[in-house]
Amino acid sequence: MYIDSHCHINFPELAARMPEILAKMAENKVSHALCVSVDLPDFPQVLALAEQYPHIFASVGVHPDYEDTPEPSVDTLVRLSEHPKIIAIGETGLDYFRLTGDLEWQRERFRTHIKASRITRKPLIIHTRAASEDTLRIMREEGAGSGDGGVAGVMHCFTESLDVARAAIDMGFYISFSGIVTFKSAKELQAVALEVPLERILIETDAPYLAPVPFRGRMNEPGYVAHVAEYLSALKGIPLAQVARQTTDNFFNLFKLAR
């Protein structure tokens, strides 16, 4: 069995096909999925899916790319996360690739999410792109991670260096690989995936984006996460069943409320 640790099946292009999406998950032995929040106005849709389907979980948070959206407070995130199907805070983090200029608001939003994670004891889902130095610095400053009373989390859709992966792992974080790792052009990321211990790996789709080979260029969906596992199995030269079992165990070890 596999788990899609990060998807956005509340997005309209997937929500309109929900019976088909769920059937494809079952066909491909994807037992659970975590539907990840990107802003507060759409959070009710994320929660509704988790409430409707026992094998769908949810998070609460505001993505760093969303500039013109209601800003979350620590109290708001804590309150919304009280629902038992909300198993994580995020996605949050920093993105200096898509946005430029004075991004202090992004850094403050990231700090807000870390504070909420520490209060709720729910793991963080972190997005970082072209901002790894500041991401790690703020994680350390705010006590993100499994030490000092903090809670760990996952570096989602990881595309950074091995040094960044190791720094995150040292703080208790997991590294999640998406369909990007299957791309022919992703040689550097594949080298990172080869070195990251299986015990610290999650798999994800980030659907509807980044469909893995052989579906690259098409709309992604949770059922395709099996292809990420198949690629990691071949890359590491280990049985597919081992990848499936360990990444599933990793998911439940991190997101304990999903048990």
Automatic annotation (TrEMBL):
Database matches in CDD domains: TatD_DNAse
Entry's PROSITE patterns? TATD_1, TATD_2, TATD_3
Tell me the keywords, alphabetical order. Answer: Hydrolase, Metal-binding
Q: Where are the transmembrane segments?
A: none
Molecular function (GO) terms for this protein are: hydrolase activity
- Answer whether the UniProt record assigns the keyword Ribonucleoprotein to this protein: no
Q: Do the record's keywords include Nuclease?
A: no
One of this protein's Pfam families, by short name? TatD_DNase
List the InterPro entries hit by this protein, alphabetically: DNase_TatD-rel_CS, Metal_Hydrolase, TatD-like, TatD/YcfH-like
Family that this chain belongs to: Belongs to the metallo-dependent hydrolases superfamily. TatD-type hydrolase family.
- Name it: TatD family hydrolase
- Native source organism of the sequence: Janthinobacterium fluminis
